Amino acid sequence: MSGADPLAVLRDRRSRAALAAPAPPRSELQEILTAACAAPDHARLRPWRFIVIEETAREALGDAFAAAQAEREPDATPADLRRTRTKALRAPLIVVVVGTPRPHPKVPVWEQRASAACAAYGVVLAAHVRGHGAMWRTGWYGEAPKVRAHLGLVDGEEVTGWVYLGTPVGPEPAPRPPVDPPITWLG
Length: 187
Prior knowledge:
By secondary structure, this protein is α+β, with helices and mostly antiparallel strands. The chain is 38% helix and 17% strand.
């Protein structure tokens, strides 16, 4: 995708739910995460961090998801818990974007959360530019005590997103329909 029109990159990026190996190698993932750190960041707080889950660590994360579901839904069947475990295996690599907002006299928490979201989007965009597929997912698992403990999150940290990365498989998603931006012009 080198040399692509930057606006086309933004317009053409699509989430890819079907992802297979290989994932970006560590050296390329380092570049992707470094690029994501260019997110808007008032006062250079870097109110985010990344947890990279690869290979067999995905199975342990799936176990944490299932344990959290069993706690939340005591009537969950073994089949339900097996399905939940597979959520961590949807891609060969997961980048957990963790928001780390903290008190600051000039930068409110909402702005720090927005910065962490921009970093997550930066991971998705940088992966796309490098030719990898990405899917940014959210959900209640990041708030579950068993999953938070598994990830080593401390009080005040929050999962901004689970960015699944890998090689896209299956048909290309349909192009986005043209959009007329909702604009109010003042002048």
